[in-house]
Amino acid sequence: MTYQSPIAYATRGTPARSLRSVEYDLIAQVTQRLRSAWAKRTTDFPALAAALADNQQLWSTLALDVAQSDNGLPAALRAQLFYLYEFTAKHSRAVLDGSASAEVLTDINMAMLRGLRGDGGGR
């Protein structure tokens, strides 16, 4: 038996995660960090700025994905998601300058999570 054999056997039992599951977990983590940072904004503004940057990176990645010609989502949904990317970028700047709330951004992310779960129509 080689050194790598136990690792190979150990990973076989680990179920493969779907991309949708990974995407869901990532959005949930970013949203939780954003909520937490927003709640502490008066005492830890750098954490809010970092959480906004993480959220913007998430939306930039989503926008890049939906802009690809081989993306399988319907064109109308792709356009809506790209619009949300643009909105989050603009709104994030407003949050940073103190003229807007981050709650709108977390609401958008929560809507994405509901959509990924398959219950996008309800709250």
Automatic annotation (TrEMBL):
Pfam families given in the database record: FlaF
Protein name: Flagellar biosynthesis regulatory protein FlaF
Keyword terms: Cell projection, Cilium, Flagellum
Species in which this protein is naturally found: Tabrizicola piscis
Taxonomic lineage of the native organism: Bacteria, Pseudomonadati, Pseudomonadota, Alphaproteobacteria, Rhodobacterales
Taxonomy, superkingdom: Bacteria
InterPro entries cross-referenced by the UniProt entry: FlaF
Any GO BP: bacterial-type flagellum organization
Protein encoded by which gene: flaF
